[in-house]
Amino acid sequence: MSSSGKQQSSLMLALLPIIILYVCTIALFALTREDLGGTSTYWQYFIPVVAAISIITAWGNAYARGDSRLFYLIRQIIIWGAFLWMLMLLQKAGVDASLGGQKTTITLIMVLALVALLVGLYLDAKMVFYAVFLGFCGYLLIDPSNAAVLTKLGETFKIADAQSKPLTMVTLVAVAAFLVSIFLLLSTRGSIAARRSR
To answer: What phi-psi label fits residue 35: left (phi over 0), alpha (psi between -120 and 50 degrees) or beta?
Structure first.
């Protein structure tokens, strides 16, 4: 295989976890719109997937910045481990049963967005854009009838009657966040290549 072919396959492999992250979130958003109360279990299973993808996709950042990869891994494990531990404690305490399915789902989405934002601010900028996208999904699920933000986004993307097309708008926002993630990934890969060539 040629050098450019190896680079392309390496880039596709690096993009795969991010693609999975956004595609799964869009699919879960679509399911949650149909059954807000019945999808909290899916979101609970999705949280470890987000944690694993966060750890995998930011691995190169530690090397590019010259940080200890062990220290990076410990920080990621502390953040995601504490979040998962807190969710287990709340579940054992019966908080999800007392909140009800709909409120549990919304709470999971918004807290996951908050944790992703924290990880993004401290360890991986790509997660900041995912957190904003996930928070946007949660906002649309909280009150679907009051989605005035979709009209403004529709004007930006030149889509008529955007308020009646939340899934289309969520997909467009996901594509925009994904493109920024690609740029950040390429920037990190450039830093890694420069560091290795020294």
So the answer is: beta
C-beta neighbour count of 127 within 10 angstroms = 26
**Residue holding tokens 């906002």?**
139
- Cβ neighbours of residue 101 closer than 8 Å, sequence gap 6 or more: 36, 37, 38, 40
CA–CA–CA angle 163, 169, 174 (5° rounding): 155
CA distances from 191 to 3, 119, 185 (A): 19, 20, 10
Q: What is the pLDDT of residues 86-104, one digit of tens each?
A: 999 988 888 877 888 889 9
Report the distance separating Cα 30 and Cα 24, nearest Å. 10
Integer Cα distance of 92 and 179 in angstroms: 39
